[in-house]
Amino acid sequence: MVSQKTSSAASLPLLFDIEDFKGNFSFDALFGNLVNELLPEFKDDDSDSVDGVGGQEVLPNGNLRGLQGSSPPMFPAVDELLAVFKDSCKELVDLRRQIDARLQNLKKEVAIQDAKHRKTLTELEKGVDGLFDSFARLDTRIASVGQTAAKIGDHLQSADSQRETANQTMELIKYLMEFNSSPGDLMELSPLFSDDSRVAEAASIAQKLRAFAEEDVGKQGMSSAVGAATPSRGLEVAAANLQDYCNELENRLLARFDAASQRRELSIMAECAKILSQFNRGTSAMQHYVASRPMFIDVEVMNADIKLVLGDQGLQAGPSNISRGLSTLYKEITETVRKEVVTILAVFPSPNDVMSILVQRVLEQRVTAILDRLLVKPSLVNLPPVEQGGLLLYLRILAVAYEKTQELAKELQSVGCGDLDVEGLTESLFLGHKDDYPEHEQASLRQLYQSKMEELRAEAQQQSESTGTISRSKAALNPSTQQQISVTIVTEFVRWNEEAISRCTLFSSQPASLATNVRLVFTCLLDQISQYLTEGLERARESLNEAAALRDRFVIGTSVSRRVAAAAASAAEAAAAAGESSIRSFMVAVQRCASSVAILQQYFSNTISRLLLPVDGAHAASCEEMGTAVSSVEGAAHKGLLQCIDTVMAEVERLLSSEQKTTDYRSPDDGNPPDHRPTNACVRVVAYLSRVLEVAFTALEGLNKQSFLTELGNRLHKGLLNHWQKFTFNPSGGLRLKRDITEYGEFVRSFNAPSIDEKFELLGIMANVFIVAPESLASLFEGTPSIRKDALRFIQLRDDYKTAKIASRLNSILSES
User: Fold this and answer.
1) Sign of the CA dihedral with 448 first, then 449, 450, and 456 last
2) Are 381 and 437 in contact (CB under 8 A)?
3) CA–CA separation, 408 vs 458, rounded Å?
4) How far apart are alpha carbons 144 and 138 in whole angstroms?
5) Which of 112, 330, 572, 668 has its CA 20 to 30 A from that of 127?
6) How many Å apart are CA 552 and CA 568, to the nearest integer?
7) pLDDT for 268-313, tens place per residue?
8) What's the per-residue H, E or C state across 702-755?
9) pLDDT digits (tens, 9 = 90+) for 140-160
10) For 2-16, 81-95, 172-186, 512-526, which range has the lowest pLDDT when averaged over its residues?
């Protein structure tokens, strides 16, 4: 890199070479190579000057100032460096000149080479353009040759096709002439039509010839129809012979198919099925295969089906056993069809069509056969007896058969049935039964109700006969011997209806038809419950009527002997006991009616309502019908409750008339202290009311209870007023009366009827007209003016009314007011 050269100033190495500036050039490295040999002798002096604090002084501006006296120069080799730098500059200038000269030479050479290169590129471009033109002409020529070759190929192919077609046509004409030779003559045909190894080819040719012949016959017929004068002889003979041959060939193939089927040779079966598919798309082969299945031709299979479902008891086996039998049978049918699927897929070119025929045959033959044995539609004119199951047995079996057959249809659809509408076909099997289903369901419910009523009447009759012949009076004394309303029976009605509703839901797929059927069935329940409860209440009322008749029978006059009076009193007591027993019986009937109506309403809310809501008006109409049915029951109950009040008041009046003494309210002035106890009549009446109304408090609820007790309270108030008007009162008797009124008032408080409580409170105030002195009556009226009307009547019952001239006092009081 650096050569040796002697300078005039110093002998330092200094020489540049052009190679020093090539590659990764570094100025620092070049400079270092120039000066490193001159600087090492000054390194120690530099380190001393860095440390030297003793020889120099640091000036305020940061420079160093030497001490007093002379000192050597800082760079003794500066002259050598300057010389080196000057020589370097001279050589660098020389190098630059050399490089410039070289660059000029290179530029000239590059210009010459560039001119040559451009000339070459121009020549190459001309050559390439010529080459592209040659390629274009070649491509055009190749395309032209290819088109010509394609046309030649098309012509050759067309010619070959025409030749082939012509050959085939000639062959077909030859065969057609053979078939058109003479009617019914199939003996002179080509060997093709009798060679078993070429059956497929023969079938194809026969079908083509047959189509052509039939088309020609059709054209001949049309020509004759439009009035052709002399129609030429057509291919009628060929069409007939071809038809016969196709039939014979089809039968021969079917025979081979059957033989292969018996040997389970699926390949031969598939070959025959493929050939037969040319005849009516293979319909005959498919139907023949399906019809030859053992489950359709074996009588033992059909008998086994009936035996499996019905057993030895027939329809009397019951729906549950029939359901199990159908499940087993339908499972076997499904498994059989699954096995057939394997064969059908391996044999037939159109397995879906075969499956459609198979499933249709299963439903229309095998399933229909068992359904015909199960579902014998009963007549609505002559109903089957209940002892043999009645209409209900038919409906239950119908529901079981329908449900299980629907499940079978879904299973068969999952196995595969082609384009067959399995659901629609299944529905058609039950169409005749579903059309008349609502009428049969209603008739069944009516039959069950009539049977139940006959059963209850028989039980009542048997109970009556077991106790011996009894008189109507004794029957009235014991209403329990009559048929009573039972909530259990009403619950049974609801259970029948609920079962019928479940069948409606099963058979009715559309909301409108479902709502219609549900409403019809629910109306039957309303009629049954309404009739049953109304008749039960009427029977309970009969005991009330009989008790009333007993009361009226033993009403006697006053002028009778003591013996007759005693007998009449005994009979009256018996009538009273009968009336009390009848009231209890009727109250129990009313209570059971209320429970039955609650069951009906809950059933409607939980089951019926949601089925009617999707159809406009159905829910409201059923609510109205239910209201009408309940109203009829309430009407019968209302009549009976009024009769109960009549019976109660009749006994109250009897007790008052028989137990109330004249001296109860007009005790003699014998000096004894007054009796503050209630009278015996009051005690008897309150005891009777407490006893007889105990069942009413339990049986009645809500508004029924309130209205009944309010009416009874009003009747009791009125009856007591009428009763007390038969007596006269002195002051002590007035106190006794007030004690009775307090007793009655305390009892009627249990009615929880404020209006009744108020009336008895006014009675207690009114009793004061018998207690106060005549001169105090005016203040009594002023204090409670509301009692004036009744008080004016009762004042006349005072024993001193005349002697104390109370009438004149009243007139003055009234004139002042």
Assistant:
1) positive
2) no
3) 45
4) 10
5) 112
6) 11
7) 888 777 777 776 666 877 888 888 888 888 788 888 888 888 877 7
8) HHHHHHHHHHHHHHHHHHHHHHHCCCCECHHHHHHHHHHHHHHHHHHHHHCCHH
9) 888 888 888 888 877 777 777
10) 2-16
Fill in the DSSP letter of residue 637. Answer: H
Cβ–Cβ < 8 Å for 408, 333: yes
* Residue 181 DSSP code: S
Nearest to 193 by CA among 145, 248, 139: 248
The H or E element spanning position 64 is strand 64-66
3-state SS string for 542-564: HHHHHHHHHHHHCCCCCCCCHHH
Cβ 764 vs Cβ 699: under 8 Å: no
Task: Give the integer Cα–Cα distance in Å for 324 and 318.
Answer: 10
Q: How far apart are CA 23 and CA 656, in angstroms?
A: 151
Residue 713, classified by CB atoms within 10 Å of its CB into exposed (0-12), middle (13-18) or buried (19+), is buried
Asked whether residue 790 carries a pLDDT value surpassing 80, the answer given is: no
The rounded radius of gyration (Å) of the Cα atoms in the chain is: 65
Cα dihedral 457→459→463→468 (10° resolution): 60
SS3 798: strand
Beta bridge partners of 798: 729
| 478 contacts 546 by C-beta, under 8 angstroms | no
Amino acid identity for residue 425 in this structure = L
Close Cβ partners of 412 (under 8 Å, ≥ 6 residues apart): 334, 337, 359, 362, 363, 422
Separation of first and last alpha carbons in the chain: 161
What one-letter code names the amino acid at 238?
A
Question: How many other C-beta atoms are found inside a 10 Å radius of the C-beta of residue 520?
Answer: 16
Instruction: Give yes or no for a contact between 241 and 179, defined as CB atoms under 8 angstroms apart.
Output: yes
Strand 64-66 and strand 56-58: the pairing is: antiparallel
CA-wise closest residue to 533 among 458, 592, 586, 476: 592
pLDDT of residue 799: 86
Q: What is the DSSP track for 640-707?
A: HHHHHHHHHHHHHHHHHHHH--GGGSS---SSPPPP-SPPHHHHHHHHHHHHHSHHHHHH--HHHHHH
Cα dihedral across residues 465, 468, 469, 474: positive or negative:
negative
Helix-then-strand count for the chain, H and E:
30, 2
